[in-house]
Specification:
Rossmann fold
Length: 304
């Protein structure tokens, strides 16, 4: 290890020890370069979210070998979130409903979350004022969400790459994207693989919402489902435009009900399987949704 890296880690450890326990855990998530993070949702036998579990309720296995959990954070930890909104010409009649839905997502999220807004058609642009990379203020987010520039085609993959670039300066280790589109990509310079691999390597969880019309020849729900599955998110396809708001609130609530589990990963460039289990004395064995493994220096597909 280079001396500069050693010194940085040592200084980080000293700073961590000076913090309260909760702050230590948050610092460790962001400072430990070998830490592998899992974002897990726990449900009971009836599919209901199970909240309030502590660290001792979880058991972690890496390559089928028990592994100590180094960092644990209960549900409702803050995230850095991007709201990515399609501005292509076909979105004109859906504009007001989409604005209301995206704003409902912001309002239903953790008040400590930091967010940004990204609009796209054949090009992508950030919605917050210049010099404001993120915001948690609802009025500021509302203005950014409402700033549509309708017209043009759909460069969805290019928008995902710009969102990933914005998340490089995220203040929190948990990074998510809410995307709303009514069509398949038809004008990006980037490919689906480039956009997807970038999100996976950065550990970004994507929650796409597709509001497709039956007569739209560019619609491709399988792409949105693939992006969601491989990044650990969930895709939503509301049958009615009025249901987009419900989907946005559902996504915000799901994010707030996730646990964060961290452990020290290896640095061998290999794939390692992950199995995370949870039990409760009253509820018995529980179902845990998280990714199925990791590649040293990257992120592997999820398991449900």
């Amino acid at each position: 290890m280079h001396i500069r890296i050693q010194r940085a880690l040592f200084c980080g450890l000293v700073a961590t020890l000076a913090l309260p326990l909760g702050a230590q855990q948050e610092f460790a998530i962001r400072a430990d370069v070998t830490l592998v993070q899992l974002h897990a949702r726990v449900t009971d036998s009836k599919g209901r979210a199970v909240l309030g579990l502590d660290k001792d309720a979880f058991q972690l296995f890496v390559d089928n070998t028990p592994q100590p959990i180094g960092v644990f954070q209960g549900e409702d930890g803050p995230v850095t979130a991007g709201i990515v909104v399609d501005n292509s010409a076909s979105m004109a009649p859906k504009r007001q409903q989409v604005i209301a839905a995206a704003l409902a997502f912001a309002r239903a999220s953790n008040p400590k979350d930091e967010m940004f807004v990204l609009h796209f058609n054949d090009h992508a642009r950030l919605g917050l004022p210049s010099g404001t990379p993120f915001s948690g203020r609802i009025p500021e987010l509302e203005s950014a969400i409402a700033a549509f520039d309708l017209g043009g085609t759909t460069a969805f993959y290019d928008a995902l790459l710009l969102a990933q670039s914005q998340l490089q300066s995220a203040g929190y280790s948990r990074k998510v994207l809410l995307t709303i589109t009514d069509g398949g990509d038809n004008s990006s310079q980037a490919t689906l693989n480039e956009a997807l691999n970038g999100a996976m390597k950065a550990g970004i969880v994507v929650y796409p919402i597709g509001i497709f019309s039956e007569d739209d020849r560019d619609r491709n729900p399988k792409v949105l489902s693939k992006i969601a599955e491989q990044t650990g998110g969930e895709a939503f396809f509301p049958e009615e435009l009025a249901d987009v708001t419900k989907a946005c609130i559902n996504i915000a609530e799901n994010i707030r009900k996730q646990y964060t589990v961290g452990f020290r990963g290896l640095d061998d460039g290999q794939y390692h399987s992950i199995r995370l289990t949870a039990t409760d004395p009253k509820l018995g064995p529980l179902h845990v949704e998280t990714r199925a493994g990791y590649i040293a220096g990257g992120v592997a597909p999820t398991s449900r």
